[in-house]
Design goal:
By secondary structure, this protein is mostly helical. It has four helices and no strands. The mean pLDDT is 91.
Length: 98
Amino acid sequence: MPNIAERKDHPLSMRLPEADIAMIDRAASLRGRSRTDFVRDAAVREAENVLMQAMPIRMSAEGFSDFMDALAQPGRPVREMVEVIQRPAPWETEGSGN
């Protein structure tokens, strides 16, 4: 008797307005993805976001104390961020077409 592999994928069916399908198809096409891949990735990403927001952060009392001490310290500039902020905007540079 041949071994029959158990299917690991589970179907999910949705009814969507035509306008939604058109927008999803256009976005998927821009990303070079199929509709199924695009919708699956978006749904999984949003599910992860929701679960991460609902998940409590656990740490030891010592870890929490260290965390609070770090927050109480004055902020320090991040060199790369300072450089980006100091750059002129594209519309402020020569040759930008203005």
